[in-house]
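Quick one from the shared queue. A colleague (R.T.) flagged Ribonuclease as missing a structural entry in our internal table.

Convert sequence to structure tokens.
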Amino acid sequence: MAVAIPTLAVERELLREAPLVFACDEVGRGALAGPVAVGASVVDADSATMEVPVGLRDSKLVPEPKRADVAERAAGWVRASAVGWADAGEIDEVGIMRALGLAAIRALAALEELGFAPATGVVLLDGNHDYITPAGAAGLDVRPVIKADRDCASASAASVIAKVARDARMVSLHDEHPAYEWQRNKGYASAAHRSAIREVGLSAHHRHSWAIADAPVLF
């Protein structure tokens, strides 16, 4: 089956309405441990005339050995990019959807610090639900688009940039808690990860409010 190649068709339509398109995509929503991350990229009319970087895809479709290189090329292609975070404690406190919204708001705020104000453009959000506005982002024009990470090049860029950043963070936590093998599973529910939870319990980086396993909490 052919792999979908993202285009700029949606972005070009949106750029008829606004001078900037901000694309957001999340990674880590379904993990048992670690933060959620939302990548954000921004493109303008000049970006939309350029060729999409070779190999750019939704991060799930880019082989892991190639992701860092694709992310670097994607970051060089868009006008700017950023990653926003919400950690496991915040996920436990406010729930996963609100945590995604907070991470997205933080990513967009980082772009504003670079001189790209989200309020002046349109926010293209991967998915079918606007989780950004309810998290406190007043005044933004958020447009959810199903499979944007697959079909829209700016969202693919946000996806792979966020994926590489989150994977690196999980690998950095491996030495602190090697039993969970986060360098391999990045906090997702692999057999080795679940086995370690049963044997040694939950770490501070696990999402304690989730029904992960009947295991004691590590402090």
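DSSP finds eight helices and five strands in the chain.
The first strand starts at residue 21 and ends at 27.
Added to the table.
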